[in-house]
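User: Predict the complex.
Assistant: Input components as received:
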Amino acid sequence: MDNPLALKLSSFTDLSGGDLAALDAVIGTPILRDAHSDLIQDGERPEKVILLLRGWACRYKVLEDGSKQIIAYLVPGDLCDPHVFILDAMDHSIGLLTDAALAFISRDAIIHLTDCCPKIARALWWSTLVDEAVLRHWLVNLGQRDAFDRVAHLFCELWDRLRQVGLKEDDELEVPLTQEQIGDTMALTTVHVNRVIQRMRTEGLVSIKRKKIRVHDLPRLRELCGYDPSYLHLRRRSQL
Amino acid sequence: MDNPLALKLSSFTDLSGGDLAALDAVIGTPILRDAHSDLIQDGERPEKVILLLRGWACRYKVLEDGSKQIIAYLVPGDLCDPHVFILDAMDHSIGLLTDAALAFISRDAIIHLTDCCPKIARALWWSTLVDEAVLRHWLVNLGQRDAFDRVAHLFCELWDRLRQVGLKEDDELEVPLTQEQIGDTMALTTVHVNRVIQRMRTEGLVSIKRKKIRVHDLPRLRELCGYDPSYLHLRRRSQL
DNA sequence: AAAGCTTCATGATGCATGTTATTGTGCAAC
DNA sequence: GTTGCACAATAACATGCATCATGAAGCTTT
């Protein structure tokens, strides 16, 4: 299965052959885009729903003073806001972190998909509810945890989410994020992100080489930062 | 109109008489509950959807170390998670901040309501999307703004949301929150919340007396903290 | 009206994290 | 292979907010 959306939804429910075919049908030929371009900008009115097939994107908001907050990551299989048409205008931007392959899905295709495949409709519901749960969890992180725990939580979450779409082998995690982007996510400066990562290194928790994070001691990392993946609402207990 | 849900949804779309009747029908006799009780707790499986008719509630999460983060406020007219049945278990709690009147709505009633009244279905969609937008906005607040701006933003947001359901007269805002709860919301200590409020007072922005906040200079408060209500996606420009 | 509790007010001190600056390192362009 | 650039590493210093402590003010209970 090379359709990452199908893979992701399969981790919620069993999809029939017809469901899988319907999911493949909405994709069409992937559209390629370069890193650092915006898929949609704050204030624009969305015309299509975006499905990320390859690469990474993020939701973010830039304030008047230039400070930037990353609000969510989109990884392969993530579909942004299937019902965004109801709103008038975007209240944040979506930008690409890497080169990417996308499918733009029309409103009508979404409606058709959910009308004819109730299992998919339900799985998409699950997916949007999980997105919201992740957002709540990030809020708790920013509000209540210190720098180390925030960064550790991010690594643990990405670990679980990437495994879900088959993008992680062994104990290596390919995370195409600069320390600045990690800082914009967890509301830290690059300097401090660096301090935290140094500490993780010296404590033998992770090693990072060219944007590949090798986690040496996942159980300990999880325990140190109090990570509990239940907010991801993964249905199937997949193997560690 | 004394149905706050109908009032709130009306700020998104015009509802027919039949729609309004359907919204009234799901309410039944209100259930009264005392302040400080939990409507549902972290880890529980939800059986009903909760509609808040009178009083205030909040979503919150308590960490192992006892620290608490308030994730959202529910005010009259707010309906929590119409599709929460899809998830297995709550990943946070919902607690009452004041005495309250509630309607518990069954899953079937929700399904029936949305099946037979497409305008309501759409308006509920809008409402959940707005809830999510508020959550994103809070994340940006916690990540990028200082204590003063965070508290000011909260006041501005509550102003707009309460006006939407007809709970605000003149320039007075009845907000039944202690400084500790404001702190748990905006990730500040009570001490620092107090300092911020003192500053607002001495600058002539607000005066607070027995949990009623009188805002003397809303335009200036908004400007000082960079408030932009577009994230609330209010359709109708109501009068200030 | 005293006692007890919750909430608010305010000062002294410390720390986690921000700010500014400098240097190193690896990759890309030419 | 030199230049330039993005990213990472690290040091010195600054600060917003937390922590700890104390007291006052207002309610509730008895």
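The domain at 4-130 of chain A is CATH 2.60.120.10 (Jelly Rolls).
Let me know if you want any component modeled separately.
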